[in-house]
Design a protein that fits this description.
This is triacylglycerol lipase. Keywords: Hydrolase, Signal. One of its GO terms (biological process) is lipid metabolic process. The protein has a single domain, classed as Rossmann fold, CATH 3.40.50. Helices cover 31% and strands 18% of the residues. The strands form four sheets. Strands 2-12-11-10-9-8-5-4-3 form a nine-stranded mixed β-sheet, with helices on both faces. The chain has a two-stranded parallel ribbon with strand order 1-13. The longest helix is centred in the middle third of the chain and has 24 residues.
Length: 340
């Protein structure tokens, strides 16, 4: 499967070097220590997830896998049919699917409504095309002052020092412009339904940005990302913590149905640690699949405290035994549709 393979391959060298830099930082003051501090609030605390949370994350991983069926050869058909995991959602209705066209940096995605769980699904596909890779490698940061917000955004909910990956911001902007009217119309049609935004890889990065956008526009989305790369700077990470957890340095070990942000990572997935060569920091909310296999046991899935955690994906990647396929393995294979 092509998505993010190039991104992961080229990132390995810089990412694997990071544990060596961290060893140096324990013995030296100055620049190395400052670089470590820029990585955000650190912890080594973890806690096992409940079976309910495990089932929730498995469910949304199937939805992200379905997004790879939206392409120019395979498709998700109405009411909700595909060659992937659509049969797990028998009372789900496809509202619309969105394909990236040639030289179009918006993301392939789909919008659906689940009448069983009373949810609106906004699902974003990961890197799959040359255009997607162009977005992945546009690593310069840009102020979110240039971010397209909805009409209800307020200045009090802004973050003046927040910067995010320019490529992800471009993908978000173009994707938002395609989808936001349909999302708002679906919310208006089903006001009693909750909103869930999920994505894998590049789609995970854009899902986080879309979740932030919907949050500051008065909605309360559940955001679940899989294999998400680093998206923004320390100020952005802290702002995300405040938006979704109510404070900076939150307790991210609480297993509650009210929780609205899950960043799912997998042992050996290098993509969750890139870009590793700039001022990038993850927000809190990590859930780590602490096993190299595709389908973890409940005991192998754990909440991780902090914006980075050495007992989770931020640990020594050499000791985690890098498995390139693990970027495509989040409870289920994200590659089984093989859309083009």
């Amino acid at each position: 499967m092509k998505f993010s393979a190039l991104l992961a391959s080229l990132a390995i060298g810089t990412t694997l070097a990071r544990p060596l830099q961290e060893v140096e930082a324990t013995n030296e003051s100055g620049k190395n220590s400052q670089l470590l501090e820029a990585r955000g609030y650190a912890s080594v605390e973890t806690a096992q997830v409940s079976q309910d949370t495990y089932n929730k994350l498995l469910k949304y991983s199937r939805l992200t896998a379905i997004s790879y069926c939206v392409g120019h050869i395979t498709e998700v058909l109405k009411p909700f049919k595909c060659i992937s995991y659509c049969s797990f959602f028998p009372h789900t209705e496809l509202i619309k699917s969105y394909r990236d066209e040639f030289n179009d940096l918006s993301l392939t995605s789909y919008l659906a409504v689940d009448h069983d769980s009373k949810e609106i699904y906004t699902v974003l596909r990961g890197s799959h095309s040359v255009e997607d890779w162009m977005v992945d490698f546009t690593v310069r940061q840009e102020s979110i002052d240039n971010m397209v917000w909805g009409k209800n955004a307020t200045a009090s909910q802004s973050c003046q020092k927040c910067k995010v990956h320019k490529g992800f911001l471009t993908a978000y902007t173009l994707t938002y412009e395609k989808m936001h009217n349909d999302i708002e119309a679906t919310i208006a049609e089903y006001p009693e339904y909750s909103l869930t935004i999920t994505g894998h890889s590049l789609g995970a990065a854009v899902a986080l940005l879309l979740g932030v956008s919907m949050k500051v526009n008065g909605h309360n989305p559940l955001v679940v990302t899989y294999g998400q790369p680093l998206v923004g700077n320390q100020e952005f990470a802290n702002w995300v913590d405040t938006l979704f957890f109510g404070q900076t340095e939150p307790n991210a070990l609480i297993d509650s149905p009210e929780r609205k942000l899950y960043r799912v990572t997998h042992r050996g997935d290098v993509v969750t640690n890139v870009p590793s060569w700039g001022d990038y920091t993850h927000a809190s909310g990590e859930v780590f699949l602490d096993t190299p296999v595709i389908m973890p046991k409940t005991s192998q899935v754990k909440f991780c405290q902090g914006q980075n955690n050495k007992k989770c994906s931020d640990g020594n990647l050499i000791s985690q035994k890098l498995v390139m396929a693990n970027h495509a393995h989040y409870f289920v294979s994200q590659a089984n549709c093989l859309a083009l």
